């Protein structure tokens, strides 16, 4: 009998024993290839000696000190390093303990910014359908995944949602990808005008949609148009890079590839690479100045913000991703993974789309490739795939509700950045075993 409140009360999970490199081992001795780093977390694999050393060294000096009394070297150095590599205009870092906290901080800072600059009437947040921004109430309200929101709907602050930029599902036959992107970006303007030209705080989006839709990148020009609309109406652009950031798509910040300047950006997951729980909310110099010259403090905070041990771990991770060149390797290995997936599943009757960027790849499962008809959700295809891939020794991230929170299935792959060519083959062959059993 366990006393742990698990994610699913009816699941019987193996107990983890240890991890090494790209593999996880349970206590029965079974080996699993870590094909999704949990949920796109373990970007450096397991047992990285540099990160472990950094944590141990930090513990030997000071594990924790409250940020209302002290700053710390690891927090200062981590913030400096993030800013050194951050998108243009981003100047300050607020260090938290995970992705949802980073998004809560982003939402509250955006609101407080307008409060400070004398625009308290701005109260709406616009986000996109089929997005996920975290499970705390503010972040959950922002997310556009109906299944996740439904039970908590009465507790969620009102947020409106426009279409995602989801080419495979949304592009019309008679429009180009670019035209499609402009069309869905323009929905933002329509929504701003509907809510009131000067009443919107922020538009929130994941540059590459992760868990809810399966590694969906935007089409060319989409975010440029979004930025133009935000500038026109004085709306802040909050990019949620909790899953797709920190090198996952081949650049440290995913938005670099779309040439878009966020006002606020949230990161987590790969920042700590699983060695410590940590996230960060980064904001523009302009937003920071509004707080500094206004009330002088951000009306927010948690006990563990700027946790020195977590920061020491993240600094070691970030150093490897940037100076160590690991993030640069991601594009190369990501291309190899995409090609291998296309070779194996490109003609598979039940694989409708193979997509993504870097080592962030999604396969959308369909009943019929031509009509893109999904499987009946009652069949729980993604659940079966999760079970069978795990049995085959591959931990990956299948999800359902890809299209609208109810219909559709996909598999998300987010392997560690240290994978070698042979591991690409291993992912594909283990996926094949599971696919053959389920489909
Ligand atoms: C895009 C995105 N934002 C926010 C979160 C929430 O992060 P956390 O689970 O660390 O709170 C997630 C988690 O999957 C995510 O994928």
Structure write-up:
This protein has 2 domains: 16-47 and 328-438, Alpha-Beta Complex (Aspartate Aminotransferase, domain 1); 52-322, 3-Layer(aba) Sandwich (Aspartate Aminotransferase, domain 2). The chain is built from 14 helices and 15 strands. It has helices at 37-40, 49-61, 73-85, 99-116, 137-142, 146-149, 167-170, 177-195, 222-233, 285-293, 308-321, 326-345, 381-391, 421-438; strands at residues 16-20, 23-26, 31-34, 90-96, 124-128, 160-162, 200-205, 236-240, 264-267, 279-284, 351-357, 360-365, 394-395, 397-400, 409-413. A 7-stranded mixed β-sheet has the order 4-10-9-8-7-5-6, with helices on both faces. A hairpin with a 4-residue loop joins strand 2 and strand 3. The model has no long low-confidence stretch (mean pLDDT 97). Pyridoxal-5'-phosphate binds at residues 39, 98-100, 103, 132-134, 206, 210-211, 240, 242-243, 268.
Jot down its keywords.
439 residues, alpha/beta, Aspartate Aminotransferase, domain 1, 2 domains, seven-stranded mixed sheet, binds pyridoxal-5'-phosphate
State the end-to-end distance. Answer: 35 Å
Strand content: 15-25%
- List ligands, each type once: pyridoxal-5'-phosphate
Q: Can you write the helix and strand succession as a string?
A: EEEHHHEHEHHEHHEHEEEHHHEEHEEEH
Widest β-sheet, arrangement of strands:
4-10-9-8-7-5-6
What form results from the Cα inertia axes?
Answer: globular
Radius of gyration: 21 Å
Oligomer: single chain
Query: Under the CATH scheme, which class of the largest domain?
Result: Alpha Beta
CATH superfamily of the largest domain: Type I PLP-dependent aspartate aminotransferase-like (Major domain)
Strand count: 15
| Contiguous helical run count | 14
Low-confidence stretches: none
Main beta-sheet strand count, sense and barrel state: 7 strands, mixed
- What average pLDDT do the residues reach? 97
- Judged by helices, strands and strand pairing, the structural class is alpha/beta
């Amino acid at each position: 009998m366990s006393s742990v409140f698990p994610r699913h009360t009816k699941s019987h999970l193996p107990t983890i024993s240890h991890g090494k490199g790209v593999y996880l081992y349970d206590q029965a001795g079974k080996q699993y290839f870590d094909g999704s780093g949990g949920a796109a977390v373990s970007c450096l694999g397991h047992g990285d000696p540099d990160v472990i050393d950094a944590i141990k060294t930090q513990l030997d000096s000071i594990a924790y000190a409250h940020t209302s009394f002290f700053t710390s070297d690891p927090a200062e150095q981590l913030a400096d390093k993030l800013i050194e590599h951050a998108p243009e205009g981003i100047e300050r870092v607020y260090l938290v303990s995970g992705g949802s906290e980073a998004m809560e901080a982003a939402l509250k800072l955006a609101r407080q910014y307008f409060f400070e600059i004398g625009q308290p009437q701005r109260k709406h947040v616009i986000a996109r359908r089929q997005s996920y921004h975290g499970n705390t109430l503010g972040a959950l309200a922002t997310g556009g995944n109906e299944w996740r929101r439904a039970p908590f709907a009465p507790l969620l602050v009102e947020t409106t949602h426009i279409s995602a930029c989801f080419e495979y599902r949304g592009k019309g036959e008679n429009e180009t990808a670019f035209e499609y992107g402009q069309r869905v970006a323009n929905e933002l303007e329509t929504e701003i005008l509907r809510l009131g030209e000067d009443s919107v705080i922020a538009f929130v989006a994941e540059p590459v949609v992760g868990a809810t839709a399966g590694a969906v990148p935007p089409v060319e020009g989409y975010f440029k148009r979004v930025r133009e609309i935000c500038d026109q109406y004085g709306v802040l652009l909050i990019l949620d890079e909790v899953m797709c950031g920190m090198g996952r798509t081949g650049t440290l910040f995913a938005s670099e590839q779309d040439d878009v300047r966020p006002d606020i950006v949230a990161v987590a997951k790969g920042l700590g690479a699983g060695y410590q729980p940590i996230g960060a909310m980064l904001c523009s110099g302009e937003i920071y100045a509004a707080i500094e010259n206004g009330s002088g403090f951000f009306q927010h905070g948690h006990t563990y913000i700027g946790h020195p041990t977590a920061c020491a771990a993240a600094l070691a991770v970030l150093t490897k991703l940037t100076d160590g060149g690991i993030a640069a390797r991601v594009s190369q290995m990501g291309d190899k993974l995409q090609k291998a997936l296309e070779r194996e599943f490109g003609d598979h009757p039940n694989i409708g789309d193979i997509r993504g960027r870097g080592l962030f790849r999604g396969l959308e499962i369909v009943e019929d490739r031509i009509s893109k008809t999904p499987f009946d959700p009652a069949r729980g295809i993604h659940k079966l795939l999760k079970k069978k891939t795990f049995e085959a020794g591959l931990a990956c991230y299948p999800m359902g509700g890809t299209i609208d929170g109810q219909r559709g299935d996909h598999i998300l792959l987010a392997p560690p950045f240290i994978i070698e060519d042979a591991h690409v083959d291993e992912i594909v062959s283990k996926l094949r075993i599971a696919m053959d059993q389920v489909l």
